[in-house]
Each structure stands twice: as C-alpha cells, then as structure tokens.
Design a protein that fits this description.
Blueprint lengths: L13 H5 L5 H17 L3 E5 L12 E9 L5 E9 L20 H14 L2 E7 L13 E3 L10 E5 L9 H15 L3 E3 L2 E7 L8 E6 L2 E6 L2 H14 L2 E6 L2 E2 L2 E6 L4 E5 L1 H10 L37 H20 L5 H8 L7 H17 L6
Antiparallel strand pairs: 1-6, 2-3, 4-10, 4-11, 5-6, 7-8, 8-9, 9-10, 12-13, 13-14
Helix pairs in contact: 6-9, 7-8, 7-9
C-alpha cells in the first residue's frame, strides 16, 4: 500500500493538489467526484453576471483537501467544495443559523446502555448531507476552481453547501421532520436523540444524530435493518455496519461478554506527533505530585520563578495542546479533567513554565495511549 500522508502534508490549495507529483491524479479524481456529486444533486444553476442583483457580490468558494484514515490501514483522498461562509451578510443571505449538535454525554449514556443490555449498535453516514435541502434565500457563488465557462457566469445556489452559516440549521430541520414522520420523537433533554418506543411486538430503537453521522441502538437487529431501509429510501446513505469509530471515538463492542471499550488512540497520536513526542519516555501521572503553576507578573513579565511569557508561536502551541487535551477529556479521558482545568486558566498569557507542564501531560498520554475506558 502507498505510504500514507500525514495531515500536515495535505495540499492547502486546489492547484497544489492537482499538481502533486505523487498523488495529483488521486486528488484530481476526488475533485471530479465531488463536482459530479454536486451536479447530480442539482446544487446550483448557472446564470450570467447580468442576472445578479445590483449590490450583490457573488460569494467565493475554496476546496478543502484532506486525507482521511479508514478503519484498518486504508486511506481516502477526500475533497469538499466549501463556500466562504464569512462573506454572506446577515439579513441579506441568511437570518437564523442555530442548530443543535449531539451531546457527548448522550453518546456515553447510550453506549453504556447498549453494553449492559446487549443492544445492536449500527452506524450510518449521510452522503453530501447539505445537498438534501434547498436554501431559503437567493445566494450567488462565483465559479469554483475546476469549472471553466465560455462566458462570465456565476452559480445561483439551489441547495446548501458546506460553509453556509444556515446550512446546518436547514439540514437539522429537514432530518428532524423526516424522523418524526417515522415515529421517532425527539428526546426532551437532547434534540439530537430520537426515540421510537416499543409497541406490541416491536422493539424500541434510538437514533443518535451528529450532523451527518448517526448511530442506531436497539435490542433487535431486524428493527435496525428496517430503519436503515427507510433512511436509505429517503437519503443517499453509507451503511458503516457495527460501529467502530464515531466522531473520532474508537469503539470496541464485545457483545458476547457484554463489554464495550472506548478510546482515542489516533486522536492521541496526532498531538504527540505534532509536538515531537511520539517516541518520548512517558510518565504515569498527568502532572508531577505537588505541581503548582503560577500566573505571570504583568510588571516584570516573569513568574515568581524564572519562567517567561511565550512568543506568538509558543502561545499558539500551548493553546493547541490544551485544546487537544480538552477534547480527549470530554470524550474518553476524564482523568485529564483537573489538569485541563488548571491549564485553561493560563491560556491568555501562557509562560514557558506552563508549556513545560503541558508537554509533561503529553508524556502521560504517550504512556496511556493504548488504554481504553470500559
């Protein structure tokens, strides 16, 4: 198999991708595949510049180009056309944007229930999720890279694209309406959990939605199959089978022993590799015993010790480490809660002492990367 690309090696532009000496052909195919999908879904109509209302500037777009690791050792070359969502104007291109997102504690609760009661856990993914509903206003987009025209034209959107501020809200309203038509009612405390109660000879089923990813929980495999069929009849879906990885959380479900393990080995490896700690000597505690971090003295630019304030690159590195630790803490490593809380106090003005403490925690991750929460 070809050598996998690291995230840092992904092309940053359309032209860099298609001109890549090794993978240019793969990236070009990925771009064509995305454009073909957009065309099949009638995402936009081509109109002349004279049809654009006076005072309206067509919004530009860009290609987001990433390699995506698949279960096992596979790799996928993924491209996505994204509209520059910071350019639309409130009240002109959109009004409301809010859409609820699935809560992690709902995921934890459902995984625990599935493990204890030996439920099926199946995963599905909606393909080109934002192309399933129409936009609610007139939006004009400049021709994206990769499309040539004989005369000046722009795209008048019929469907949403990634990057539109209102896209997530429109998608949630669409999928919520459909799920409720199937009898799957929203859970009061998490609008992304939909429940179909057991009735007569039918087993209950719970659907957890996280934008375009969904998990199906039920004691009945037949019940899951039925809901999958109804979903595929409505949307273009990818059936991923028994869950293995959801929002970056790797899940191992041993139904025979009624045990479920969750971990984030790949998510741990990324900050370790970025900061050069992949092969370091590890520690077995998040921080040394008696560790006490101090704030910066604004007058002397020093702490009570010898630590100094970080430059902009050091500050960004510290904040990136803290952000990675926070995500791990929320998902699978509650043992990091106190450490993350302590580090977060110094995010605005971190010092060399704080950065050293953060890298200490990375060494702790190095030693515990292969552990999982049961």
């Amino acid at each position: 198999m070809e050598e996998e690309l690291l995230d840092s090696a992904d092309p940053v532009s359309y032209w860099e991708a298609i001109a890549h000496p090794r993978f240019g052909q793969k990236w070009s195919y990925a771009v064509d595949e995305e454009l073909r999908s957009l065309a099949e879904n009638s995402t936009w109509d081509y109109v002349g510049l004279e049809d654009v209302p006076a005072g309206v500037t067509p919004i530009s777009s860009k290609w987001v180009i990433k390699t995506k690791e698949l279960p096992g050792d596979g790799i996928r070359y993924k491209t996505r056309l994204v509209i520059r969502g910071f350019q639309p104007q409130v009240g002109v291109d959109f009004d409301e944007t809010y859409a609820p997102v699935g809560k992690l504690h709902s995921l934890h609760m459902m995984l625990a229930l599935a493990a204890v009661h030996d439920w099926e856990i199946e995963q599905m993914d909606v393909v080109t999720v934002f192309l399933n509903h129409k936009v609610d206003s007139d939006i004009y987009m400049a021709l994206p890279q990769g499309i040539e025209a004989d005369k000046p034209q722009v795209c008048k959107l019929r469907k949403s694209l990634y990057g539109l501020k209102q896209a997530t809200r429109l998608w949630y309203e669409h999928i919520d309406h459909f799920l409720r038509s199937l009898g799957l009612e929203r859970y009061e405390y998490d609008p992304n959990v939909h429940l179909l109660q057991s009735a007569q000879n039918y087993a209950p089923i719970i659907l957890l939605l996280y934008v375009d990813n969904m998990l199906l929980f039920s004691p009945s495999a037949n019940r899951v199959t039925t809901i999958k069929y109804l979903l595929r009849a409505k949307y273009k879906m990818t059936d991923l089978g028994p869950v293995r990885c959801f929002v970056g959380i790797e899940i191992e479900h041993d139904q025979l022993r009624q045990i479920l393990y969750i971990h984030q080995l790949r998510a741990v490896q990324k900050p370790l590799a970025t900061n050069g700690f992949s092969d370091c000597n590890g520690y077995w505690t998040p921080q040394p015993t008696g560790s006490r971090l101090q704030r910066l003295d604004p007058e002397s630019n020093l702490t009570n010790g010898t630590a100094r304030t970080l430059d902009s690159d050091g500050k960004q590195r510290y904040q990136s480490i803290v952000g990675s630790l926070m995500w791990l803490m929320l998902c699978t490593q509650p043992d990091l809660a106190f450490t993350v809380s302590m580090f977060s106090k110094f995010s605005s003005t971190p010092t060399t002492e704080h950065l050293s403490a953060a890298t200490y925690t990375l060494r702790y991750l190095r030693n515990t990367a292969n552990l999982a929460m049961q």
